[in-house]
Amino acid sequence: MADQYYPPVGFHFAVTFELPGVGAQDFRFQEVGGLNAEMEMEAVKEGGNNRFTYQLPVRTKYEDITLKRGMVNGSPLVEWFRLAMDNFTFLPTNLMISLLNESHVPLQSWYVVNAIPKKLSVSNFNAGENSIVVETLVLSYQYFKAIIP
Question: What is the model's pTM?
Fold first, then answer.
């Protein structure tokens, strides 16, 4: 009952890919970013009246999705990235990002359509720190749909 009165917390979430061979080790991320949509606008000047410029909607633009996690050896998800980066073979896939409540039930989900790898990076190595190696995966995609249960 309290869920309807308080904003949800952003630390309990799940990411699932519709890729063959991708298992539970590829669903765990420490950070997800980029669920942003923005309307591109076109400026149109009114004929005969120089005082007005109208902003008309053109199309929706979606920001890249960034996923961060501790490095996983033998990950099919990273192999999907390498197939794109090394062989220029792109296999678009869909994924679901879900914000979960304390019972692991989705409060809201975002269905991301036709995602492809855009960037794969590995964190710096530093002998003076005791930190895990972090993989950053960046995806480009067509659009997302919000799904509210």
Answer: 0.84
